[in-house]
Amino acid sequence: MHLGPVRSASAALRTITGFPPTLEESRPVTVIPPPRTTTGALPLQLVTRVEDGEQLHALLWRAGAGWRMISSAVLGGGIGERAWVLNAQVSHGYRRTDPARHLAGLAHDAGAHGPGVGLMTAADVQAHGRAQDGGVEAVATAGLGVRGWAASPARGTTAQAAPGTINIIAALPVALTDAALVNAVATATEAKVQALLDEGYDCSGTPTDAVCIAARIPRPGEEIQAFAGPRSLWGARLARAVHSSVRTAATP
User: Fold this and answer.
1) What are 70-117's pLDDT values in tens digits?
2) What is the pTM of this model?
3) Which residues of the chain have pLDDT under 70?
4) How far is the first Cα of the chain from the last one, in angstroms, to the nearest whole number?
5) Three-state SS for 13?
6) How far apart are CA 103 and CA 44, in angstroms?
7) 83-106 burial by CB neighbour count: b if 16+ within 10 A, else e?
8) How is the beta sheet containing 67-71 ordered, strand by strand?
9) Cα 179 to Cα 43, 109, 185, 202, 226, distances in angstroms
C-alpha cells in the first residue's frame, strides 16, 4: 500500500472534479495499513488514520471490476460501475465543506484507485454490523445521536446537517436492472426503519443516512433480475441482511 500525503491525492481528484487545491490539502495524513482483513461476499479492510490529532477509522471494500452500484453517497453517487467503497469516520465537529474531495483523498491514500463510492459518518465504524442471507451481504454503521422521522413538520434546510448517519453497504451476487437497483434502495431503507423500530428507537433514521447497493455487471447470456422489492427472491434476502446488520450496529 502506498502511504502518501493528501497532496498526492488532491492532484488526482482535481483532475476529476476541477476543484482547486487548498492549504489543508498540503497537510499530510498518516494512513496505517489495515490490521485485519475480513472475508465473505463483502470483504472489508479496516484503515486507520490520524487527522488533526484524532485517531479515526474507515472501512474499505476493494470490490474490483465487475460491479455496478447505486448510491446516495456524496462521492460516486448515482448509478454506475464502481471499484471500491469507503465508509470513513470523521470527527463529531466536522466542518469541512468539501466532503467529496476529502473522501477521494482518503481513498487514494488507502490505495483505492478508479471510480468508487465514498461515505462518511461520525460513528465509530469499528462497531459495524454485518449479516448475510442467501448470498447477499450487508454492512451497516450507525451514528444515532441526531435522529428523527422523515416526515417531520420541521422546515428543510440547505445547511450541512450535524454528523451522525446510518450508512448501509450491501452486495448482491446477481445482475439487476436500473429499476431493480432503485427498488433495492427502497427495500434496504424499509429494512433499516424496521430494524430501528425493533431496537426500540422512535425514529426512521438520521438526516444524513446514506446507502450503497452493489450488483454484478451482467455477462452475456446471464439473467438480469428485474425486481428487488421485499417479497422478490433477491429483495427478500437483501431486506433480511440489511435488517440484521442495522440491528447489530444500532444496538446500544
Assistant:
1) 999 999 999 999 999 999 999 988 888 999 999 999 999 999 999 999
2) 0.83
3) 1-39, 155-164
4) 35
5) helix
6) 17
7) bbbbbbbbeeeeeeebbbbbbbbb
8) 78-81, 67-71, 210-216, 166-172, 136-142, 129-133
9) 26, 34, 10, 31, 7
